């Protein structure tokens, strides 16, 4: 049975408590308080607040207008009717402008906030190779891509829409509570055969009603928080599994793995379906209560004012006015209850982002704790007392001392799994587990080639110049380089945008990587089985070309083939458990079955 990885950021906090609002504040504050665009952000926020409050003010005027209008109708006052039509036209025009701008400014704020949040999260994700260390420390399980692409947008959007909803609720409350209080004075409450006048009666009704509604909404709606949380995660898992098929389409096709893939998709989709079904069932339950409460709220003020109206103590306009005022006050009190499902979604998004931030911070701390490798810039590679470890603490290389000067060529050998690639990662500065001292020319002057080259999306030109080749490099130079690495047949396609990592054979991709060495001319080049997919004559030809064209470039290669011997002057052998030794190039160590002194047969594996 498959065990899904759990998300390190899963929240136990399922309530709208202080901890939750602290998280919101932590996510929201930097944009408005510290960012470079804080003044634009504050101006937009002020615009949103002003237009929201303006809308509420106009609503208040319209409520008063209702009173006059219905009274004009009831008294057959034609002149008053036309005058009030004119008043309404003015009020409605202002309301339209405010409402359009309120929505526009809110969206603009969302968009800019999202851009800033995305930029900030991307910087932290990419800085100090956190994206890589999340995998190494096994902390990157829950789809960081989805958090950056979707959750940040939802956070900005939900926060600003719930904020302006809340603001409008408060403004409505402030605007209408006084009116409702005054109007309540005329409401008659018949009780026990006696007519009572309760000060602010309808305000109390609205408040108690909203409290009851919120209590029910919280009880019924709270599970929506974790259902929303899991829905997003399960959907992202499902999408990611589809993406993996796209990336590995050829391998799956060759294995004929469609049935397995299908079963995997079905299983993941079942999770999406199951959770979504629970979510809509819960939403349905929520809607039952929500609809019930909102329908009853419509008739409450009429029920309350009916006795006074039928006793002819108040006119029809009063009834309409009190219904509108009650609707506004009650709607304001019950804002949270009415929008509880959006609040639950917002909670889920905040939990996910808090989890993501927590993972980033944990990785940053682990990076600091794990790495005690001092790195210095120098003119040559010098390694002193270097220990390399695995995440579990096992020693891969112990106390390595090594010096490789300009133009020198060192071959690193050893049985599979003894840590050759891990040593390369430490030298490249991306492996955090180890201690010791490394001196190397700065990063622009060293180039590391992994076994599987990375070809970015875009043109072949882009791929050749990745990551730091000058965009001004003339095409003729690129033609020469392609020709030199045996890719002359691709010259005509230099500007074509294709899925190059799928189109080119692994050997061709390794040639592209060698082309990068020619273009960047580093002082140190580290080749981790970077020519392993090539046939031996081609591998020989490429090494020969590198040594001839870049005689001053030091070369540190990892490889298993004996063909590499001819192109190196020294050999570092790792034999596992942290052991290492510098051996003569012709020496085959006894633990690999060799005699210990004989040179290997020309094409025999070096292991
Ligand atoms: N991210 C990781 N987490 C845990 N262990 C790892 C990780 N990466 C590598 N290892 C382990 O470290 C050990 C050394 O791996 P490494 O890839 O450096 O070996 P290698 O000598 O380059 O092997 P090969 O010759 O097969 O390429 C292996 O046991 C491997 O399983």
Automatic annotation (TrEMBL):
ABC transmembrane type-1 domain span: 43-345
Ranges of residues in domain ABC transporter: 381-601
Keywords of this entry: ATP-binding, Membrane, Nucleotide-binding, Transmembrane, Transmembrane helix, Transport
Record field: transmembrane: 43-60, 80-105, 162-181, 201-218, 286-311
First-listed, main subcellular location of the protein, grouped into a coarse class: membrane
Recorded GO MF terms: ABC-type transporter activity; ATP binding; ATP hydrolysis activity
Any one Pfam family match given in the protein's UniProt record, by short name: ABC_tran
Keyword Cell membrane: no
InterPro entries tied to this protein: AAA+_ATPase (IPR003593), ABC1_TM_dom (IPR011527), ABC1_TM_sf (IPR036640), ABC_transporter-like_ATP-bd (IPR003439), ABC_transporter-like_CS (IPR017871), ABC_transporter_sub-D (IPR050835), P-loop_NTPase (IPR027417)
Stretches the record annotates as Disordered: 585-607
GO cellular component terms listed in the entry, alphabetical order: plasma membrane
Membrane topology: Multi-pass membrane protein
Keyword Nucleotide-binding part of the UniProt annotation: yes
Compartment list: Cell membrane
PANTHER family in the cross-refs: ATP-BINDING CASSETTE, SUB-FAMILY D MEMBER, LYSOSOMAL COBALAMIN TRANSPORTER ABCD4
Protein name (Swiss-Prot/TrEMBL): ABC transporter ATP-binding protein
